Protein: DNA-binding response regulator
Organism: Zhongshania marina
Amino acid sequence: MRVLLIEDDASVAEYIVKGLRESGYQVEHAADGKTGLVKATTEQYDALIVDRMLPHVDGLTIIQTLRASNDSTPALILSALGEVDDRVKGLKAGGDDYLVKPFAFAELLARIEVILRRQEAGSAVTRLKVADLEMDLLAHKVSRAGQPFNLQPREYKLLEYLMRHAGQVVTRTMLLENVWDYHFDPQTNVIDVHISRLRQKIDKGFDKPLLNTVRGAGYMLDDSQ
């Protein structure tokens, strides 16, 4: 799970980042509202933790901007303002939860888990589609332009991850952690081999390749090339 923390207090940010990483989350940190808004609108995260009072752009404006663009990424608001009216303003701005400072990390973690479960329950996906490539998650079938493919279990898992992150650069580290469950690089060509096999199956014989290598960065499944 990728979490974006937008928090200008360095000590609070360090405390949250350390705790979330120890709990298995991938965390990115932005120290001001402007940087946070750019990250939130240009990258994909599973959840946001947003301080209310931020330099340049305040937290409520960040969330309102995202909601106005139909971005429903779950957002937990952090604030020293704990009156009922303050909480109501935060929730009406589009926040999914509101946590008053100071707080115990265990409570923050529990609230993040709750809003993530709520999001998953409300957005169950059964079919993925990128251009004419389709994956039926219930039937466990893949096809392109109506032509079915037989994929090995690891190839299927790899393609599912790429399709869920279509249009984004997926790094080797992301693939190792999420497809192979490695939290280190074994220094083998296992990813290259599987990418090559997958490309042969989903792109060979089609005019437009979907699985692209982004030199020096990773891979991207996308139909804009």
User: Anything to note?
Assistant: The first strand starts at residue 2 and ends at 6. The mean pLDDT is 90.
